[in-house]
Amino acid sequence: RKDLNWMPPKAQNNSGPNSDSEKHKRRRKKSSKNSKPALTIGLPTFGLNGSQVVKRSDCQGIPASRQRTNSMSSTNSGSSSWGSSIGSPTNSPPQDPKIPPRQANMRDRSRHDSGGSIFLRRNDYSAFNVLPRQKINSYHIKMEDECSIGNDETRCFILSNYATHKMNRVPCVLCNSMMMIFERYPLIDGTFFVSPRQHTPSCIQVKADGRVCYLSAVCMGCLEGWTTRLQCRNGNCGKLWDGSQLILGTMYSYDIFAAVPCCADRLKCTSCSQLVIHPEQRFNFFSDYSQTVSCPHCGVQDFHFTKPLERTFLSREDITRLNARGGDRSNQLSWARITANA
């Protein structure tokens, strides 16, 4: 007969394999096996008769105020480059948490450029006051901005190459007037450009995009047509070269004289004088006219579209010869001159 009210007696000793105490012991033993010994960084201590604790530094006669430097494991120095503790206000790097990252970057760039530079810092922009009023803006004149991506690469490319040649002034390739090179935008009272041709001996040799080319400069007066006006040598063309739309104070990565061919003579081969491309055919980019191209007639690879200035525009000797002949044509060309090879 079943007793519906019967309850099993409670065990007095939980010594079974599934008891709570056994589970707790196994869990504690497992955690102790997986735990790794903690690495204590510091000086070991020695006990004298179990009562007094003496540091090893005291035994070796090292002053207690001395702190370890140039160590990554030292608690008082966070970096080995500063060689002192973090708490030292004289040796720690100047950091202001209130300064925005871009402004801090600009201050750091100014701090690095200020010492030992052969280039001048521009005091004002009064040199550009001769420009038309509509051109005195940051669109026509390259100005310094907070974005250093790309701008610093161009600026460092120009300054480093001229610093290598110990030049802080550069002559204009057209009128030979000297221009100062400044360490900040606008870098020059004109513009720089890179050409595969060395138009004048003052054009320095540089390496850009894996090829040898020449860094040149044109002054603001020649770009605007005040000092020098360039006219095409082809009598049937006679167009003037216009550089007034170029941005001042920066650098172009192509030859600015070859970027816009005015007639078919600018497209002829430098060897056989045949057309390399049809006059109605045009490249998509200005820099394509400064690249090496193979002539379809003679097969010569050359910078066919980037010709020497004396072969493209009228020179001073040409003007002198035309003036000697007289006539209306010489009067029209009396202002069209080029002084690059003067």
Would you give an account of this structure?
The chain has 342 residues and is an alpha+beta fold. It is built from 8 helices and 10 strands. It has helices at residues 20-34, 56-59, 101-114, 151-164, 220-224, 309-312, 316-325, 328-332; strands at residues 45-48, 52-55, 169-171, 178-180, 190-195, 204-208, 211-219, 251-252, 293-294, 301-302. The strands form 4 sheets. The protein has a 4-stranded mixed sheet. A hairpin with a 3-residue loop joins strand 1 and strand 2 (52-55). The longest helix has 15 residues, at 20-34.
What is the overall number of helices? Answer: 8
Content of β-strand: 5-15%
Helix content: 10-25%
Low-confidence stretches at least 5 residues in length (pLDDT < 50)?
Answer: 37-95, 108-114, 327-342
Please outline the major beta sheet.
Answer: 4 strands, mixed
Number of strand elements: 10
